[in-house]
Write a structure and sequence with these properties.
By secondary structure, this protein is α/β, with parallel strands linked by helices. The protein has eight helices and six strands. Bound molecules: 3-methylbut-3-enyl trihydrogen diphosphate and magnesium ion. 3-methylbut-3-enyl trihydrogen diphosphate binds next to helix 2 and strand 2.
């Protein structure tokens, strides 16, 4: 199918991406891993622009996990510095666009400068009505659930939450993603077939798509291929297929 036909058929509302393969992409070019991260970051900007153009409402992207701190210091520094220079470079463009940006993950381990940029970006774009780009930075699903448990526990003690009234929706409301639409499609690049502590609960009924393509090579045609695959799935959410 061509681009227009795929878009006309209806794009998923919420896509999550585990962008993977930056290091291998650089290695193939005999370049340092950070070169791969640079191209990966540039690619994210392109894919976000395209996702906005074709009407995807929300895109949640795994940029840095709670486990990524164990990488060599040089790489961690690069991965944590990169967003800062990006915010500064694209700040005016983003603030004047219709793209909304927010962040999920821990906020107590990122630098003060980075946190200030994150808060400013969220504040300045909060009423934007185009693509909602959600960047997962220092995010881990188990950490998210741990945080949610502790918060719920404290609110029960304080009498703000009634144990008997906690249902599935209540649990969801305590996750970082409580304000986001349900997840429709997860894409992971680079041939790894695992979830790596990303959005474990949110993935309950999402469709999964894995591709061998390394993240810096994942272009708009690759995104369209993933969407086309999604459109062929029969989503039943545990029920039966309607006639
Ligand atoms: C993904 O690429 C970048 C991050 C989200 C940290 P990798 O750095 O994991 O690249 P590979 O898997 O080593 O090729
Ligand atoms: Mg990897």
């Amino acid at each position: 199918m061509n681009e227009l036909d795929i878009i006309k058929k209806g794009v998923p509302e919420h896509i999550a991406i585990i962008l993977d393969g930056n290091g291998r992409w650089a290695k193939k070019r005999l370049m340092p891993r950070t070169y791969g991260h640079l191209h990966g970051a540039n690619n994210l900007v392109e894919i976000a622009k395209y996702a906005n153009k074709i009407g995807i409402k929300c895109m949640t992207v795994f940029c840095f996990s709670t486990e990524n701190w164990s990488r060599p210091k040089k790489e961690v520094n690069y991965l944590m510095q990169r967003p800062l220079s990006y915010f500064r470079k694209y700040k005016d463009k983003v603030f004047n666009s219709n793209v909304r940006i927010s962040f999920i993950g821990r906020r107590d381990r990122v630098s003060k400068e980075m946190l200030a940029d994150m808060v400013e970006t969220e504040e300045k774009t909060k009423n934007h009505t185009g693509l909602h780009l959600v960047l997962a930075i220092d995010y881990g699903s188990l950490d998210e659930i741990n945080t949610a448990f502790k918060k719920m526990h404290q609110e029960i003690i304080d009498g703000k939450l009634n144990l008997d009234l906690i249902d599935d929706q209540t649990v969801y409301n305590y996750l970082y993603t409580s304000q986001l639409p349900p997840l429709d499609l997860l894409i992971r690049t680079s041939g790894e077939i695992r979830i790596s502590n990303f959005l474990l609960l949110q993935l309950a009924y999402a469709e999964l798509y894995f591709t061998e393509t390394l993240w810096p090579d994942f272009d708009k045609n690759e995104l369209l291929k993933a969407i086309e695959s999604y459109q062929k799935r029969s989503r039943r959410f545990g029920g039966l297929k309607e006639k």
